[in-house]
Amino acid sequence: MDIADIVSEEYVSFSPDTRVSKLTGAFEDAAVKGVVVHGDEFEGVVTRKQLATSHHQPDEKIGSLTWHVPRLAPDEDVRKVAQLMIDSDSGLLPVFDGRELSGVVTVDGVLEAVKPFLDAATVAEAHSDDLVVLDPGSTFGEALHVLRDHRISHLPVVEDGDAVGILSLYDVIDLTVRPEQGSKGGRPSGIDSYGGDMSSGSGRSHGGFGAREGELARVLDLPVRDVMTTPVRTIDPEATLETAVEEMFAVDASSLVVTRNGDPFGIVTKTDVLDALTWEAGGSRSVQLYGSDLIDDIQYEEIVEMVEKFDDRDGGMAVLDARIHFHKHDEKFRGTPLLRASIRLHTDRGQYIASGEGYGANHALNEARDVLERQIRERKTYGRSKKHPDEEFWEKRFGWLLEE
Questions:
Q1: What's the pLDDT tens digit per position in 246-256?
Q2: CB atoms within 10 A of CB 245
Q3: Please, what is the angle between helix 361-379 and helix 300-308, to 10°?
Q4: Burial 33-58 (b: 16+ CB within 10 A, else e)
């Protein structure tokens, strides 16, 4: 399946010298997943994530936030597009016909096109269960730190074991794009005017009727309860991904909290569904490596061997797919850069995600491996056994993707 039918010629475009304050107006529309930055030629895109990850002055130029993303061809395979969206961390990618920008493809466009085929996969197989949460009394500054430290976009807010709200990067745009001085009160209507993904369907409570001074320190001290989204949208782990996508579309959300007997234990996002589209068909496993240019003290074959050792680690657990990302920090020790290694394993017993940091690829990978092994041991007490998917299973799930 290619993307020819989901390329949209309707998109928001700004020049690089446009002020950042205009982005907030564009993102009032929850359907806008990103804007195209185009001067004399295409330069890149800006998404809510770039806008929300740090404080910006309203008169800052959009060009300083531009995100360089992959360019797509009109006949690009949908699986490749899903992977490129994950790798580039962008829900909007440009489509070029030759040298000319002909349109864009969005994450919603991809999911809408493949939604009928997602009934063979469940939330339990795609969700992330290493749930990171905050309590309502935590500060906005603490929330930003957690979002950035864990490299996540959604943060459930839990009180006494119940999910009472959720905070996403999209919810904080009005707090990160503001002058150093000024005052602004909360909205009693509960509707966020800055276009977080649940702004039109579920109601958004931004609480707080008091003044919000522009001074950054005071903004960072705001309690999470003042900026979180309520109510929380939840889903059962046995629901299909088709149902999950339909629910997200219905409430203009980009994530759902996964609960069992009312207790939150995971989260499923649109990115998780995109990731499911890239799983290998035929039951075979691949080890996909990103940031391979950072590897100089370990061989690819050694990495594959490490992944293979996870097979049968938990009484017959089978690894179906593995992805390993390396990211370089600025810090160095005796000339060796500090790296972050992230491992994501898809197994027949669910998904495992772990990360670790170290000087050099080998050190960072070993740290991440140790975290992963601890997760597997801890989950063993309640993990459930599943029969390894057979050929018929994979044909039902992904056969449509292989059709010419």
A1: 999 998 888 99
A2: 20
A3: 10
A4: bbbbbbeeebbbbbbbbbbbbebbee
